[in-house]
Structure formats: C-alpha cells, structure tokens
C-alpha cells in the first residue's frame, strides 16, 4: 500500500509546477502524496482570495483518498487577508478533509519559531502588494523583518520557471548581517536544490515555503523527517 506510514494530501494552485515535485523528491519512505488543485493564473490579492473559495472542495476530494493530513500549499494565499487567515484556512481544510491540516503561512511561522528566529531576511518573487502583505504578516507574528525583496512576477508559471541558481544569487544579495535566518517565500519558487548550500555559505538557517510546509506536515503525520535533506529545520 502506498502511504503505509502516512498519506499526505496537498492542495495547490493549478498553475503551481514546483510544490509537488519538491515534496515528492523529499518525502520519507512510506509517505505518499495526493494532490488537488485550485484554479489560479496570476499571483495577486484578488486572484488568491478567489482561489481560496475552492479550498473546501479540494479538501473534500482528498478525504475520498483517506489522507492522514493535508497541506494547503500557498504562502500568500494563506495570509492574503491578514493575521488569523492562515489558521482559518487550516480549519476550513481540516473540516472538509476530516483530517488535520497545515497552511504554508502558518507553517512558516512555526518553522521560524522552532529555529528560535527573531530577525529574518526575505526574498520572494511576488509583486509589491503581496510583498507588503507578507512583511506585515511576519511582523504581526512577532518577527523583525530586516530586509525583504520581491521580483514583481505576477504570472505563476513564470515564477515556476525561475531556476534555483537565481534563488541562490538573490538570497546571497540580501543584507543578512542582522538576520537570524533567511526565508525564501513562495511554494512555486524552486528552492530545494540550494537550501543546504545557502545555509553553508550564509552561515544561517534558510527556510523555504515548501520546506516549512513539508516539515510541518510531517510533524502532523508523526513521521521523522530528519533525513530528507532540506537543511537545519529538519535536524531539530
């Protein structure tokens, strides 16, 4: 049986081409992945808000696969309406799927808290409006955002085409002297190949949206993720 240690449901924007491959490449043995999709093309506040109307539908579909937990894999899609919206999304998905749920924005907060982070530098592909919303979200969660830079990309498929090498370069260009960690934001941003290299070169923990979500989902499943190769977050 696939998923003999746990079946993980994943809800992603329809135009996300990164989350599923990154999860599948780093799932522990015995954990299976089962995805449902919400329609999204442009990554802006209105589109993300409308996309969330499909969360319950996706959760109910995943319930038919008898999943043990569900991850809502979208960063700004789970914070677009401000503080508390991430937990609201988790509650809505959990009720529809009849299983515990995590949402990326909430998972990022839990991951940074787990690492003891107070000050964070952020790089993201988002447009300015979403960059501002994310900064406010992180500050409301208790973090000092010492730097945050966005690329201004609106088409989600264009975000998915960004290579990990460019993620590395942009993270290295952040001013990190006052940071306790770097956060690379967006579940469609290809990051897993460079997380550990960035940590070695920066001398700091580096957390991506997908790494934080997978870490939180595995904790929810009760599965040890220390061998998945995604940096310091998974070593604790």
Automatic annotation (TrEMBL):
User: One Pfam family name from the record?
Assistant: Amdase
InterPro entries from the xrefs? Answer: Iso_Racemase_Enz_sf, MaiA/AMDase
Q: What is this protein called?
A: Aspartate/glutamate racemase family protein
